[in-house]
Amino acid sequence: MQIKSFFTKEKVKFKRVVIHKTARGYNIELSFNAGVELGKGNPIHTDVKLKCFSIENGGTQVKWSHSFGDINMPTGAWHELSLLLYTEKKLFVACSNRLICIDIESGTILQKIECGASIIEDISFSKNSKSIYLFHSPENFNPDLSHGNILKISLSGDIIWKIEKPESNRLFSICLLYTS
How does pLDDT run across 55-108, given as a tens digit for each residue? Predict the structure, then answer.
């Protein structure tokens, strides 16, 4: 399907991206419309939805859900998007430029953490799982740039550190090394 993009006036090819995680007896599903061509952006109508299904009774019963509307999300041209993380009691969801913390049992939104101006393209736990690394997408999904800003956030929502992307004509990449 093709519709107009956030970034250009040309029509954008898109697909429905669905990201699944299984957590504490639940199946979590984040879905949104995303562009499939790198650098061409996303459709205006992303229709971002988050659903939690109880694994009991075949996993088809919706326990709770949230609709975040037409917010800007990473393009579907990236493979293996990591936008969901969970701990024993919390689910972390990267939605546009926010990290949203949700009580996994009730679906109650506990916290929305504003993480800068650009879209979050990836989140992952630190080695000890006591904090989250958050990677922003480059400006306007420019395929010539590696990453935007990078943040380390505590599970309580405090920003531990932030790496600002250098001026726009420079690239950088991050290699996280773990030692025992």
Answer: 876 767 899 999 999 988 877 655 567 899 998 889 999 998 899 999 999 999
C-alpha gyration radius of the chain: 17
b/e 92-101 (16+ beta carbons within 10 angstroms → b): bbbbbbbbbb
Q: Alpha-carbon distance 175 to 173, whole Å?
A: 7
Give CA–CA dist 134/119, Å, rounded. Answer: 10
Q: Which residue has the tokens 């420019």?
A: 142
Distance (Å, whole) CA 119 – CA 141: 9
Rounded CA gap, 8 and 76, in Å? 16
Residue 159 contacts by C-beta under 8 Å, 6 or more apart in sequence?
A: 151, 152, 153
Q: Which two tokens stand for residue 49?
A: 């939805």
Which pTM was predicted? Answer: 0.78
Can you give the pLDDT at residue 3? Answer: 46
